[in-house]
């Protein structure tokens, strides 16, 4: 399963223990365990349809859990509603972008700062967002529906950063994008750790996250089958062929 060594002095921010979930009577997660430490970028990898999106939705309160325990910033959040989880600083950016097409980029971003503290600090938060996503600063007065796919994805992630974020979970940021857009997006995502953010990314390909993720988990058929460094997984050709084709 790979090495599970992590930084000895880092604080655990997100703890997932024996998490199970299902759709009707069909099991999707069969008891997964993983950790995200403060300041880390961690990735959950795996083929489509094997539970990655469900894991994020269960953590953020958007999908009912069958069992298990989720703790964030030292407190259990297993039974909390999604809006309370957001207020704690655990932000979930789902697949796609879910932007308001007839609103400008700036207006979409300000929607992410709806909680009182975030709204008071919206100017400072916008400056941080512009420093990470320079392209959308150039397009800030453009209607969201006029953006390219890569730009829309940047706006969706940036909107999440406008909240009082301690950890941001991003579900398949490269989904449906052209290779050049993926490269541009991941160049921006690499800056998240540099500005002190803790990030959990869901993706299919270990190559996409190898330059920014300190630790990866491989999720297959609802179970964690590997935990270790991204380059370990990339070197394990048998593991890659078996689980990622």
From TrEMBL:
Residues 14-242 form the ABC transporter domain. InterPro entries: AAA+_ATPase (IPR003593), ABC_transporter-like_ATP-bd (IPR003439), ABC_transporter-like_CS (IPR017871), BCAA_Transport_ATP-bd_LivF (IPR052156), P-loop_NTPase (IPR027417). Pfam families: ABC_tran (PF00005). SUPFAM superfamilies: P-loop containing nucleoside triphosphate hydrolases. GO terms for molecular function: ATP binding; ATP hydrolysis activity; branched-chain amino acid transmembrane transporter activity. Keywords: Amino-acid transport, ATP-binding, Nucleotide-binding, Transport. It comes from Planosporangium flavigriseum. One of its GO terms (biological process) is L-amino acid transport. SMART domains: AAA. This is ABC transporter ATP-binding protein. Belongs to the ABC transporter superfamily. It comes from the Bacteria.
